Amino acid sequence: MSLRRYVLRRTLLTLPILFGVSVLTFSLVKLLPGTPVDYVLQFQEATPELRASLRAQYHLDEPLWRQYLLWLNDVLHLDFGDRVVSDRSVRAAIAERLPETLVLGGVAFLIALLVGVPAGVLAAVRRGTLVDEGSRVVALAGIATPNFWLGLLLILLFGVHLNLVSVIPPIAPLFAPESLAFLVLPAITLGTASAALFTRLTRSAVTEQLRQEYVRTARAKGLDERTVVVKHVLRNSLISVVTVAAVQVAFLLDGAVVIERVFSWPGLGRLLVRAILQRDFPVVQAVVLLVATAVVLANLLADVLYAWLDPRIAY
Amino acid sequence: MPPFTTSRRRLLRWVGAAGAAGLAGCAGGSGDGSELVATLGADVSTYDPTQANDTTSRKAFGLVYEPLVSVDFEGTVRPTLATAVDQRDDRTWRISLREGVTFHDGSDLTAADVVATFERYEGTPRESDVYLWYDDATIRDDYTLDVTLSEPYAPFQLSLGGVPIVPEAAATDALDLSNGPVGTGPYAFDTHEPDRLYRLVRNDDHWYGGEGEADDGDGVPDTPPIETLTFRIIVEQSSQVAALRAGDIDLANNPPADAVADLRADDAITVSERLAGGFEMLVFPLATSPFSNRDVREGIARLVPRQEIIDSVYGGIGQPAYAPISPLLSDYTSESFLQEMGEEYMRYDPEQARELLERGFSALDISPPYETTIVTNETGDRVRWAQLVRDELNRTDYFDVSLEQFEWNTYVGRVLAGDSHRSDAMMALGWSGGWDPDTYLRSVFHGEQSTPSCCNAAHYANDEVDRLLDEALTVYDTAERRELYEQAQRRIVSDAPVAFVRFGTRIEAFRSDTVEGFRTYPLDSGEFTAIYAPWANTYTSLGGG
C-alpha cells in the first residue's frame, strides 16, 4: 500500500471515530444532573407554562434521538446555537477563547520541546553520569507534580515574594509583548509534565539509537560525536518523540482547564468549566466536541507522520 | 444592584458559593484619571436584571442600575430614584420620583420607565422578584405612580430595593440590554471582555447634587471620586489573595477563611469584617428514623461544637447560631433571644445530648450505633465543620457517621430533590438571607416550600409556623412582626428540624495605602455599594501609595 492510500484509509477511519465522539459528547452531557432550565430557573418554582416554554426552547421536549439529530445537523453547519446564560452565540464565545488557549498551549508545547528534547539527548549521551541521574530525578518530579500546585507555587514565588511578574494577565492584546511575557509562568506550569515526558522519551530513544550499527559505522568513518548525535541519532530518535508530541496536544488542552483558572487566563478551559457549572449545555457540547476532534486529528497526524518518517513501518 | 438579596422562594445560595470579588486600583489620589481595578470571582453572565440568577452579574450591574429605594449598611431604606414611597392603604403605595434623572442613554426617567420595569419581569426567570407582590400600577403624572399590591406585603419597600430600574425602551425591545446594562447609576457600562475584565466609567451626569455630609464630616462629592472601575475576573481564590498581596489588585471580597490570618498579619492590607446575613445548618431528614424523633434531633443539635467550629474552621470569624434570623436584623432578633434559644434547645452540651439520645433511641426501639452520613458539597469550610460534627457524633455510642461530598450541582440536585426528607443522611447546608426576616424563614421552614418547590429539605411542616409566617408577611408594624417572628422561631427551634451552626461574616481585604473609605456591605451582591452610595453618605476614593 502506498503512503497516499494509507493516509486516505487512515483519514476515512477517523470518520466513524468522530461520529462516535459526537454521540458520546451528546450523551455524556445529557448524563450531567440538571438541565439548562434548572439553571435558568435556579430550582425556583415556576409556572408550568414558563417551564414548558423553556423546555421547548432547548428542545428538551423532543425524544433524545431527535435532540441528537437536531444538534448534529446544527453542528455540521458549524452552528452551535446560543448560550443558555446569555443571548450570545456559542461560536462567538469559542472563537473568542480559542486563540487564548492555542497561544498558551503553543508556548507551553514549545517550552516542553525546547527543554525536554535537549535534556533527553544530554542524558542519553552522558548516561550513567550525574547529568543523567539529575535529569531523571527532575523529570520524575515534573511528571509527578500537580500543575495546579506548581502554578500557585510559581505565583507565590515570582509574583508575591519576588514581585517580578504580575499575578493576573495584563490588559493588552494577546500578542502584545506584555501578554507574551505574562505567559511564561503559565506555560512553564503547563509544559512541565510534557517536558519531563519528552526528556525520558528522548533519552530512551537516543540510547537505543546509539547502540545501532550505523552509529558505530559513522563513528568509524571518523565523524565527530556531535555530528553523529545531531545528524544521525537525533533524526531517527525523533520518530517516537513526534508521535508522542502529537498526542501531548490532548494533555495540554486538558491541563489548560486548570492552568487557566490559576492564572486567570481567559481561554477555552475557563469557558468549559463555567459552562459545566451553569448547565450551559450548548457550550459544553461544542467545547468537548472541539477538543475531542482535536485529539482525534492529532492522533491521525501522529500516525501519518510516523508512517512518513519511518518507511519501514508496514501499513 | 440590589444591595440585598430576596431569597424568598429563591435558590439555596450557599454561603461562599457565589465567588469572591474585590476592588483594586492604582493610586492617583481622588482626582481625575483615577482607576480602581476591581475583581469578580466569576464572569458576568448577563446584564439584564430579569435574567440574572448569579450574584456576580448582580454585583457587576449594581453600580449601573439604581432601584427606587436602596438599603443602606444598617438595613435602613433610603430614597434613591424615588423621593417618597407613601402608603395609601393596605395594598396601595404612591411613589414619587426624583426629577431630572437621566439614563445612560440620555433618556429621562419617568413613571412609564418604572411601570415598564415591573411589567417586563413577567415570564422571566426572576419573575418572583416582582410578581410576589405586584398587581398593577397607575401612572398619575410623569413623576408619580401608584402601585397596587396583590395582597398586603410587609417587605414591599425592601423588595423595591431589589428591582433595578431600566428604561422603558428595554421592555419594547427598542433597547437590547444584552449588549450592555443601561441604568441611571453613578457608573456606566464601558466594556466586557469575557473571563478577562468588566469595565465601568464614571457617569458625570449622575443625579446626585452633592447634598449631605459623609460620615467623616467631609461633604459627599457630586460624582464618584473614582473615574474608572475595572473588574478583573479572577476565579481562583488563592490567586486572588496572591494578586492582592502582590499589589495587582487592591481589594478582595470574601477571601478564604484560612487566608485571613495571613492577610491580617500583612501591614499593607486592611481586613474589614462584619456580620453577614445567612447561616450554616445541619438539616435532618424528618421522615427517617431516628431523625423523626425530636429528642434525637435535639441531642444531635447539642453535639454541634459551634465555638470549636468557629475557632478552628473559620479562624475565629463568625458567631454561633441558635435560631435562623441573623443578629444583623436587630429589629427582629436580639442577642438575649439567641442565647435563650441556645440554652433551651441548641447549646453544645454532650452530657445532656447523651440523655436525649438515650431517650430518643429507646422510644424508637433502635439499637445503636446507627449508621448514617452527613452529605456536603465541596466547599472546604463546610466540609471541615461537617467533619467536626461527625467526630462528635461518633464519640457517642449512638452513631457511626461518615461524610460524603458531592460536586456542587450534583449536591444541589440531591438536597433539593423531592424526597430529600426520606434520605437517611443529614445535609450540611448554608442559607443566605437578606434584610427582611421572612428571607431567613419561609423558604427553609414553611410547609409549602418543601422540596422540590423550594428549599425546605427537611420537609418541616408545622401549621402554626406556617400561619405565623404568612401573617407576619402582611403586617406592616415592625413590633407586631417581631412578635410573630419570635413565636415562629421559638416553634422552629424547639422542633429542631435543623441544627443551626454559625452566622457568617462578610470579609473584605484591601490595600491600606490605596483604598480609602471602603465599607463592608453585609449581604451578597451588595459588595460594591460602598464605591458610591450618596444616599448612605458613603464613597470610596483612592489614596496615595
UniProtKB/TrEMBL annotation, chain A:
Pfam families in alphabetical order: BPD_transp_1, BPD_transp_1_N
GO terms under cellular component: plasma membrane
Domain of life per record: Archaea
Keyword field contains Transcription: no
GO BP term, pick one: transmembrane transport
Subcellular compartments: Cell membrane
Key words of the record: Cell membrane, Membrane, Transmembrane, Transmembrane helix, Transport
Domain ABC transmembrane type-1 span(s) in chain numbering: 98-302
The keyword Chloroplast is annotated on this UniProt entry: no
Membrane-spanning ranges: 12-32, 102-125, 137-160, 180-201, 238-263, 283-309
Membrane topology: Multi-pass membrane protein
Cross-referenced Gene3D superfamilies: MetI-like (1.10.3720.10)
InterPro entries, per database record: BPD_transp_1_N, MetI-like, MetI-like_sf
Similarity remark: Belongs to the binding-protein-dependent transport system permease family.
Name of this chain's protein: ABC transporter permease
From TrEMBL, chain B:
CDD domains for the chain: PBP2_NikA_DppA_OppA_like
GO function terms (MF aspect): peptide transmembrane transporter activity
Entry keyword Transport: yes
SUPFAM superfamilies given in the database record: Periplasmic binding protein-like II
Annotated Gene3D superfamilies: Dipeptide-binding Protein, Domain 3 (3.10.105.10), Periplasmic binding protein-like II (3.40.190.10)
UniProt keyword Signal present: yes
One Gene Ontology cellular component annotation held by this UniProt entry: periplasmic space
Record-linked PANTHER family: OLIGOPEPTIDE-BINDING PROTEIN APPA, PERIPLASMIC BINDING COMPONENT OF ABC TRANSPORTER
Family the entry assigns: Belongs to the bacterial solute-binding protein 5 family.
Full protein name: ABC transporter substrate-binding protein
